[in-house]
Design brief:
The complex is a heterodimer of chains A (about 375) and B (about 140).
Chain A lengths: L5 E8 L11 H16 L8 E4 L4 H8 L5 E3 L7 H14 L5 E9 L14 H6 L16 H8 L3 H15 L13 H6 L2 E4 L1 E2 L8 E10 L11 E3 L4 E4 L14 H14 L8 E4 L6 H8 L8 H6 L16 H4 L7 H13 L11 E8 L4 E8 L5
Chain B lengths: L13 H8 L4 E5 L5 E3 L14 E5 L3 E10 L10 E8 L4 E5 L15 E9 L2 E8 L6
Antiparallel strand pairs in B: 1-2, 1-3, 4-5, 4-7, 5-6, 7-8
Classes of the chains: A alpha+beta (about 375), B mainly beta (about 140).
The structure holds zinc ion.
Zinc ion binds next to loops of chain B.
Protein name (chain B): DNA-binding protein
Organism (chain B): Lutimaribacter pacificus
Keywords (chain A): Transferase
């Protein structure tokens, strides 16, 4: 019998979602943080560990009035918040701090920010960006035609990713895009970067989210239903030069991160009730399902198209609608975590009945990094 | 329209851009790995860690490994244009545009043979790829 050691006791998103022109990026971090503190009945004085990505963690600490004994500013792109959950868990287990606040805020749409949150890559600039792939839609998409040829992935299957996620978004009043769409709608939407059309690409939103973690023995002191971490999660990097991916059909970082998360949690795929896979673009859930081992190589496109991940399917995936339909601030990983917490608390507007175990997997940069965590609402297993 | 980006060149990569000015596509290769080439340049081997690295001239031939036809703005480019990954005959991949070829899926068949050419960009020459003359290389 294993006992949970780490719990997420506070979780909240920004008060508004999608279009928030009245708040700066710093303000979005703070709004989310204050909401998460209120969620679990704490104040900033109770926080002794703080972590964020894409923003100077020291600025967020100072702005909120936190004086931490532990901080982490690991910033590898949108999965960083998933990474920070497992880093925070390790710090809590080591006794480096007692109560960790992880914040995200990004003014992706209104652009009230000092800078873009990604580190520039020297080699990507020198050998790739000079040819034009300077923004995610023209960079993240580069491997996909190769995968389509090698694995039989089709444009219709890519379109179905967007269609199914829109079905999930329809449950969520806070989702930015809730109107049903069809494969024809996706395939007739504006061409962004062949073979990618607008509805296969993420939204551009303002928003934020925050989590509060502590050791599991304190979890029952809080008013919220605790959500526990199972195992240590996983993380890895492959690097920012997309041309140097070992395989264009599979992400090495996804495989390593997922393997570690499943191994340390001691779970098999059939144990997973709910799954979040960061979807900046429609191909990412496909790579994710295959690289995490839910299906074999080349099978995920058909798996989604056959309806296994849609409402009522055997493997509910991206039940908030994802970056394609819920929101995408730029570093979306925090929102995948938030929906998994809602599912484990049993309060998601798209609640999966009886769900006990959720896997959250994210990408950072353009296949540059990955992170995975496993959440559960059971305190022993 | 602004100018196309110039690469920021560093001491370890100067030879690559010097070679391009002379119409040569130069790669690093690892002596300890049997002259196995790698990309991008660095003074050690990413496969085995050896510092026994030489410079070789690539054949300039490769094939179209993957691509997009971009409508996304990029400095100095008129959309749509092709951004590709080329698999060189030497077994390394790199990013390029596909020039002398319309940005059209009908004209861009995966695995079609390509050959290097050089685009003058300021005082630099930038390696680019175009469909190989006379078909298969
Ligand atoms: Zn070597």
């Amino acid at each position: 019998m294993n006992r949970a050691t780490i719990a997420i006791v506070g979780a909240a998103e920004t008060t508004k979602m999608g279009k928030i022109p009245e708040l700066s990026q710093t303000g979005l971090h703070a709004d989310a943080a204050l909401n998460a503190l209120a969620d679990c009945g704490l104040t900033v004085a109770d926080i002794d560990g703080i972590a964020t990505a894409g923003h100077d963690v020291a600025e967020i600490a100072q702005y909120l009035g936190v004086s931490p004994v532990w901080y982490d500013g690991t910033s590898v792109g949108g999965c960083s918040f998933i990474t920070l959950v497992r880093h925070a868990a390790a710090a809590l287990e080591q006794g480096l701090c007692n109560t960790v606040l992880i914040t995200h805020g990004e003014s992706g749409r209104s652009r009230h920010a000092a800078h873009r949150p990604m580190f520039p890559s020297m080699q990507q600039q020198e050998f790739e960006a000079i040819y034009g792939p300077v923004l995610p839609p023209s960079r993240f998409t580069l491997p996909v035609l190769r995968k389509m040829k090698d694995d039989g992935l089709t444009e219709e299957q890519l379109a179905m990713v967007a269609v199914v996620q829109r079905e999930w978004a329809a449950f969520h009043p806070r989702a930015s895009a809730r109107e049903p769409i069809t494969v024809e709608d996706v395939l007739s939407s504006k061409m962004i970067a062949y073979p990618f059309r607008k509805l296969m690409c993420c939204l551009v939103s303002d928003g934020g989210g925050a989590l509060i973690l502590t050791r599991a023995d304190r979890a029952k002191d809080f008013p919220t239903k605790p959500v526990y971490l199972r195992g240590a999660g996983g993380e890895s990097v492959e690097g920012p030069m997309i041309s140097q991916m070992e395989s264009f059909s599979s992400s090495k970082a996804f495989r390593i991160s997922g393997r570690e998360a499943f191994r340390s949690a001691g779970i098999s795929h059939s144990d997973v009730d709910h799954l979040m896979i960061y979807d900046a673009f429609a191909h990412l859930p496909i790579y994710g399902l295959e690289d995490l081992g839910f299906v074999g190589r080349g099978e995920a496109g058909a798996f989604i198209a056959e309806g296994h991940t849609r409402p009522g399917g055997a493997l509910p995936l991206n039940t908030n609608g994802g970056g394609l339909s819920y929101m995408h601030s730029g570093m979306y990983g925090m929102f995948a975590l938030q929906e998994a917490v809602r599912q484990m608390r049993g309060v998601s507007p798209a609640q999966v009945e009886g769900a006990k175990l959720s896997v959250v997997h994210g990408v950072g940069g353009m296949f540059s990094a990955a992170a995975t965590v496993v959440m559960t609402n059971e305190d022993r297993w | 329209m602004s100018e196309r980006q110039l690469p920021a060149i560093y001491p370890e990569t100067q030879f690559y851009w010097d070679g391009a000015k002379e119409g040569k596509l130069l790669l690093n290769a690892c002596t300890a790995c049997g002259n196995r080439p790698f990309f991008p340049p660095r003074p050690f081997c990413p496969h085995c860690g050896s510092r026994e690295v030489t410079v070789i001239e690539a054949s300039g031939r490769g094939r179209l490994y993957s691509y997009i036809i971009s409508n996304v703005p990029a400095p100095g480019y008129e959309t749509p244009f092709t951004i590709a990954v080329v698999m060189l005959d030497e077994g390394v991949k790199l990013v390029s545009n596909i020039v002398d070829c319309p940005p059209d899926p009908e004209a861009l068949e995966l695995d079609m043979p390509l050959e290097v050419t050089f685009e003058q960009r300021g005082t630099l020459a930038v390696p680019q790829f175009r469909p190989a003359k006379g078909g298969a290389a």
